[in-house]
Amino acid sequence: MSEVAERVPVRRLLALAVPALGVLAAEPLYVLVDTAVVGHLGAVPLAGLALGGTLFTVVSSQLTFLSYGTTARAARLHGAGRRSDAVAEGIQASWLGAGVGLVILLLAQSLADPVVRLMTGGGQLADAATGWLRIALLGAPMVLISLAGHGWMRGVQDTVRPLRYVLAGNGVSLVLCPVLVYPVGWGVEGSAVANVVGQTVAAGLFVRALLTERAIAFRPDTAMMRAQLSLGRDLILRTLAFQACFLSATSVAARTGADTAAAHQVVWQLWSFLALVLDSLAIAAQSLVGAALGREAARTARAIGRQVSWYGLGFGVLLGVLFTVLFPVLPSAFTSDSSVLAEIPHAWWFFVALQPVAGVVFALDGVLLGAGDAAYLRTATMLSAAIGYLPLIWLALVFDWGLSGIWTGLSLFMLGRLLTLLSRARSGRWAVVGATRTPSDSAAH
């Protein structure tokens, strides 16, 4: 009997996407509050927090495979009716996160001071950034354990508990941060301590969730961890391509001039925020597609891919219209500098026009991540970066194209990703069924 493709009810999709959006938004919102607290200490502590926080994020963001890769593997097992095996993926990802986090902690403690001084040239700013970073690095294992927790819970289609855990951890940090910074008198280092305590609370809740599942074994399984690292390698390379592009754009904007850099920062932060909004739909797609493939429902997985892509397109169109309407008033909420306001339109209309493209791209990212098609995503992202984004960014510096050149590069990057993802989605070769997907599956398809 032929398989009947199932359509996912909108309510089910939103039940996964809305809590995921809460998780994605919680960290940036906490960072804003943390910045506001430290900002009243003066320019040097605030700059130290900014630099230290950026370096910590660069390190931790390379290991998001503990979340995305674990979701892909756990969702297939969950769809196949093997919940205990899906939880076992979370256990091994947590061991892996703890181990990698300890290695990062030990290495980065010795490298923190020379790296910061290389970037700043020394002085009070370097001291503030190094002090914050060395304390914050104590939370690295906790952050990676939490990433693993997000991964397996999304895989079993539970996005509500992770939201509660993140809110609990951030809530503790929010209370502690102003207390440790001011009455206790630890200054910017008090902010780092508050971060570590909050991260420890969240990681502890994720570990407790694993313990209550009563999975088969909690001891490390090196074979399973090697398989997770194999998938993680492709996702790490993909993340590196993103960072090379985004850091290059920021660097070129800064070299072009302060007004250009400030205008780019305003529009880029809006782009980053909307990326989080659209990414919540991708997270729902990951879980649903992985589960469908796990129960060997390839037609259903492909139908979910089409459905989510149309939703992403519609959502992107709405966002484009919204920010077209907001253009006369929104930029002024970020700055009153007339020269910066004059530069913003050079990026704004690219930002608006790209929203429908981003809606489809992020949705298809989720579909292919859910299918475990990381090797294709790696190659597509790196090619789009090498052919589109990076050349245009640096040509914009050479020929003084300003923000128009930088955002033309981003547009080519997004269009390259759109074409490669649509081609892969239409081929259907990503829809490899089974409770697991091996590297040979990717090579064969």
H/E series:
HHHHHHHHHHHHHHHHHH
Low-confidence stretches are none
Please state the CA-atom Rg, rounded to the nearest Å: 22 Å
Summarize the biggest pleated sheet: none
Alpha plus pi helix count: 18
Tally of individual domains: 2
**What share of residues is helical?**
over 70%
The count of DSSP E runs of length 2 or more, i.e. the number of strands, is 0
Strand content: under 5%
Mean pLDDT: 88
> How far is it from the N-terminal to the C-terminal residue, by CA?
25 Å
Oligomer: single chain
* Net shape: globular
SS-derived structural category: mainly alpha
Notes on the structure:
The chain is mostly helical. The protein has 2 domains: 21-220, no CATH class; 235-444, no CATH class. Helices cover 84% and strands 0% of the residues. The longest helix is centred in the N-terminal third of the chain and has 38 residues, at 83-120. It starts with 9 loop residues before the first helix and ends with a helix. The model has no long low-confidence stretch (mean pLDDT 88).
Features:
445 residues; 18 helices
In a nutshell, what does this entry contain?
By secondary structure, the chain is mainly alpha-helical. The protein has helices at residues 10-39, 43-61, 65-79, 83-120, 124-136, 140-155, 160-181, 188-213, 222-256, 258-294, 298-325, 330-334, 338-343, 345-353, 355-370, 374-398, 402-427, 439-444. Pfam families: MatE.
